[in-house]
Amino acid sequence: MGQNVLLMIDVQQAMFMYEEKLYREQEVVEHLQQLLTKARAAGTPVIFIQHTSETDEDFRENSIGWAIADTVSPLPHERIVRKTSWDSFYQTELDDVLKELGADRLIIAGMQTEFCLDTTCRNAYSLGYQNNVLVSDAHSTFDSKVLSSEQIVAHHNGMLGNRFARLLATEEVHF
């Protein structure tokens, strides 16, 4: 069996600074922490994806919002891959890092469900990472003008789960 890798997508301070709270914010943070604890205990590599923007002040390099959230701080040896689009693979070293690690199963969690998490799940599958897990209760978003955050999460779990990734709850994920 190949290598598992935990991808923590855009769990950055900005996500917790808005007036509107993320859907199930505290529960999702707890699940992200549990995933980190389990991955680290198993010696599974963790890669933090960090959105970086020149136009969005909340994600400008070295801003308060740009920092990885304190609740899931990377350890010194854990990789941080910076990205500038919704796709964690687009013009980043992520694919090279995963190949170097011999990754064949990505455990995917983070923010925001309908943007970076969705795009990364789909592209990972297209790039040949087809044994992935989307952690159904470890990703979140905000309400849109059309759908509630709860509807967005449920929709994406239904669309991505068992198509682009196997859908598992945090408690079902084993490294």
From TrEMBL:
* Pfam families the UniProt entry points to: Isochorismatase
Q: Which GO terms describe its molecular function?
A: hydrolase activity
Show the Gene3D superfamilies listed in the entry.
Isochorismatase-like
Provide the Isochorismatase-like domain boundaries. Answer: 5-144
Q: Does the keyword Hydrolase apply?
A: yes
Q: Which UniProt keywords apply?
A: Hydrolase
What protein family is recorded?
Belongs to the isochorismatase family.
Protein name per UniProt: Amidase
Organism per entry: Paenibacillus terrae
